[in-house]
Specification:
This protein is mainly beta. The protein is 12% helix and 32% strand. The chain has one domain: SET domain (Beta-clip-like, Beta Complex), CATH 2.170.270.10. It has 2 helices and 13 strands, in the order E-E-E-E-E-E-E-E-E-E-E-E-E-H-H. The longest helix is centred in the last third of the chain and has 15 residues.
Length: 168
């Protein structure tokens, strides 16, 4: 008896280093690596397509009231995980591998690593053992989570300011 398998994803666009793919079952887009990377390796440079005072679900926060859309635009398809494999370094404006990334693996990042307060919080179902549940932004992270994850300079500055206010 022959088994027919249907693909889980269809390719939306190819960008040499990665492909945007859409999950057929729920039409969710995701970014998949087209080569392998080692921890610390730069995957791509990025820049600010637009800068706005208000966040959206597509922006990355780089300062108080400063939210950027990503260029190249396909980077916006990197989904959240509580066990991320990439990081948006907003100081160097580079996407960096946090852990070994295999060819054909979905790229994921930890949304609170770039967002102080999420414009749209959500319940995470990433399935990793250390999943933190509700994703609301770095302002709501436990001390343990703050120490576990790599966070942008802006988020680290916000956490330091809040800690200084508590001491004062």
């Amino acid at each position: 008896m022959e088994t027919i398998t249907t693909p889980a994803y269809r390719t939306i666009s190819n960008h040499v280093i990665a492909e945007v793919r859409q999950k057929i079952s729920n039409e969710q887009n995701a970014l998949f690596s087209l080569r392998s990377y080692q921890p610390g390796e730069v995957i791509a440079d990025f820049s600010a397509g637009t800068i706005s005072a208000e966040p959206t679900y597509l922006t990355v926060q780089v300062g108080v009231g400063k939210h950027i859309t990503l260029q190249p635009e396909f980077l916006q398809y990197i989904n959240h995980s509580c066990d991320p494999n990439v990081f948006f370094d907003t100081r160097s404006m580079q996407l960096v591998a946090l852990q070994e990334l295999s060819k054909e693996e979905e790229m994921t990042f930890f949304y609170p690593s770039t967002e102080w307060e999420m414009t749209q919080s959500f319940n995470c179902y990433c399935g990793c053992q250390a999943c933190i549940g509700e994703i609301k932004g770095a302002a709501f992270l436990s001390k343990e989570a703050q120490e576990k994850y790599r966070l942008t300079d802006f988020i680290q500055q916000q956490l330091a300011k809040r800690a200084a206010r508590k001491v004062a």
